[in-house]
Amino acid sequence: MVYIDDVYGIEVLDSRGNPTVKATVILSDGTKASAIVPSGASTGSKEAIELRDKDPKRFKGKGVLKACDNVGVIGNELIGLEPFNQTQIDRLIQEIDGTNNYSNLGANASLGVSMATARAAAKSLGIPLYRYIGGVNASVLPVPMFNVINGGKHADNNVDFQEYMLMPLNFDSFSDALRAVTECYHSLKEILQKSGHSVSLGDEGGFAPNLKNNEEPIKVLVEAVKHAGYEAGKDIAIALDAASSEFYSRGAYDLKGEGRVLSSSQMVDYYAELCEKYPIVSIEDGLSENDWEGWELLTKKVGGKVQLVGDDLFVTNAAILAEGIKKGAANSILIKLNQIGTVTQTLETIRLAHKNGYTCVVSHRSGESEDAFIADFAVGVNCGQIKTGATARGERTAKYNRLLEIERELVSGEYLGKTLFNK
């Protein structure tokens, strides 16, 4: 019998230079595995609680020593248990915390242990993490969403929308798709430089230029795709993450970058207009997490042809997703493990989404690390889409490079899989 022998947490740094939790699980057979928990800048109000020390003398209050201690608290209850029953482990973590949002232990403590346990179990069995999560059916390499222009809370510029992304279409492999968008990324840099714009990077590796309005980045992306030798709408499509909860105030949308305030219905019309003019295939958080009527209107107006992704709206929470399904709001959900707190709860939300015809997009956070857990996770759940930043900065490329390794394993038959890159 293999059992959990030790669990501990240490404070490490994320891609923004802020502290985060690294949890480590050691098994009785000598297996050792760790996981680093990400952190978001633009967060939904109903997300699981990220525990911070709030000690102004350390990291301006952002230290996570208490959360690291709580990793040990969880570990004390797990020692002696087999690591291979993820549901049992995660249910016990929930019981130890005793709340519905991890406000006692911190979701950064709970998720660190949950991910590290899954990774240790897979390593002990001698199989890849994606195979441990999804079994022999784990075979779909996700279509990536590449965030190449940053705005909103992810950049210091005048663009209101948080992310402008490129999505490859009709490529036969993940590696070909990655190459194509990387070429577009470099073309975008050349275009911005020639136009005198800044090519400094935002939190997720995208460029952060000051542009005259929220439509201008879309025009620049279409130009960059053409410059790289591809056709927008045929080879490369565009996706947006407005993160509109960040500019929603008093029942209206304050687009400071454009100097105008729009009502909910006007915001819906704005998106509909953009979708008519440009090859936009996905819009994330087009409306505020509190604007349910607006979401219903947006879904009725463009949901038949555009993927409408709820991030702040659903926060990877099955109960909130069920409410959205009932109301007919959105048709897709963003999946962020640290929004809900454990691997098991995340899987439950994905199952509910798939059962009701909602697509799923596995996502990173703006504060990331070299940990590539979500690359394996996306393949393991066959979600078909992943969002993990630009093809720059090590914490972003770590995920893409891991997916390249997985592609090689599946194509070679090393793990009895077959790559089915979505067209």
Describe the global form: globular
The end-to-end span amounts to: 44 Å
Give the low-pLDDT segments.
416-423
Helicity level, as a percent range? 25-40%
Please tally the helical runs, counting DSSP H or I stretches of 4 or more residues.
13
Strand order of the largest sheet: 4-5-6-10-11-12-13-14
Instruction: Indicate the radius of gyration in whole angstroms.
Output: 21 Å
What is the level-2 CATH architecture name of the largest domain?
A: Alpha-Beta Barrel
CATH-defined topology of the largest domain = TIM Barrel
CATH superfamily name of the largest domain? Enolase-like C-terminal domain
Oligomer: single chain
**Number of strand elements:** 14
Q: Main beta sheet, described?
A: 8 strands, mixed, barrel
SS strand fraction = 15-25%
Query: What's the level 1 CATH class of the largest domain?
Result: Alpha Beta
Q: What string gives the helices and strands in order? A: EEEHHHHEEHHEEEEHEHEHEHHEHEH
Please, what is the average pLDDT? 94
Number of domains: 2
Structural class: alpha/beta
Describe this structure in words.
It contains 13 helices and 14 strands. With 423 residues, it is of the alpha/beta class. The chain folds into two domains: 123 residues, Enolase-like, N-terminal domain (Enolase-like, domain 1), CATH 3.30.390; 278 residues, TIM Barrel (Alpha-Beta Barrel). The strands form three sheets. The protein has an eight-stranded mixed beta barrel, surrounded by six helices. A three-stranded antiparallel β-sheet has the order 1-2-3, with helices on one face. Strands 7-8-9 form a three-stranded antiparallel β-sheet. The longest helix is centred in the middle third of the chain and has 21 residues.
